[in-house]
Amino acid sequence: MTVRCIMAIVLTIGVLGCSDSGGSGDGPDTTDTSSTSDSGTTADSSSPHDTVTHVDSDSGVDTGADTDTGTGSNTTLPVIAGCTIFTADDEWNRDISNASVDAAWTSNVLALAGNVNLHPDFGNWDNQEWGIPINIVPETEPMRPISFDWYPEESDPGPYPFPTPDDARIEGGDAYNCDGDCHLLTLQEGTCMLYESGNCTYLSDGWHCGCGAIFDLSENSSGQRPMGWTSADAAGLSIAAGLIRYSEITEGEIRHAIRFTMPCTRSNYVAPASHYAVPGGCGDEPSHPPMGLRVRLKADYDISSFNPTAQIILRAMKRYGMILADNGSAFYFQAETNPGWNGDEQELKDVPASAFEVITPGPMGP
After folding, report:
1. DSSP letters along 301-324, please?
2. Buried b or exposed e, range 60-89, using 16+ CB within 10 angstroms
3. Which domain holds residue 91?
4. Each residue of 118-155: pLDDT tens digit?
5. How many domains does the structure of the chain reveal?
């Protein structure tokens, strides 16, 4: 549970996003069945909310180490339900395969992470779907009132076109009984507006969430959140933009950065983040990474022995990297819930954190 503090240090400096655990990220683990946080809710594979589309269907799979040189821009954008995910020059879509490495930040991040491996915080295990659902609603979906109980001053006001409570897919449960971050992500077709909230539940007077953020997917995400504002993620970023979608695996390519978590962060952020958080028990240490920091899988890391699903994800980590978006277990990364995950993604647990490097960040704020 996050403790709110802006002007003074109590347990937490800043806000960890409007969710219970700040994204601790204990998803499916075939060796540890005690995982409880960031759990997904079971979905019907025939549901229209599962529809995720892409610009094209390039299904090639690289069977060796990645040799992309990178251009710095993404000419084929990721798409959900006919909506491009921000613009070609957006940070989420930037090719960083040629970006310079910051050796000092690489050392700091790896020291904080310790001797850990990459951890896919999604999949299907023990009759549960793990991950973060993305609800797709039509342009005609009614706008429904919503109350923000935690951080209304850092929320985009409602109403939101959230699904009815019986139809809504929420991370960690349903609209009436949810455990963990309880993220509710909703993309409205036609308008291409994305509505994201955390700690959501449905009560007698309507939807209640911790906070809310609205993103216009047709525009660059930079500046859509005022500097210093949180979102459903502690970094003030869109969650959906950084999730792996199962359709990207079937099509053979992920064309965007992936969100990931670290246990401790400092009271600064770098682009594309707009918000910082210092979790209780961490301390505001200069060696702790700022929100928004970006890591990249080393170009010479050999991926040829991995299965095709793992290779697709690892190629994206080399080309687009991962953006630090929330606090949680070190090097946990996320995807949408989908019945198609078959366990191949779990092979990524063999990749050590030491195979990653931090690219040179921009200026730190605030």
Report:
1. ---TTS-HHHHHHHHHHHHT-EEE
2. eebeeebeeebeeebeebbbbbebbbbbee
3. 1-366
4. 999 999 988 889 999 999 999 999 999 999 999 999 99
5. 1
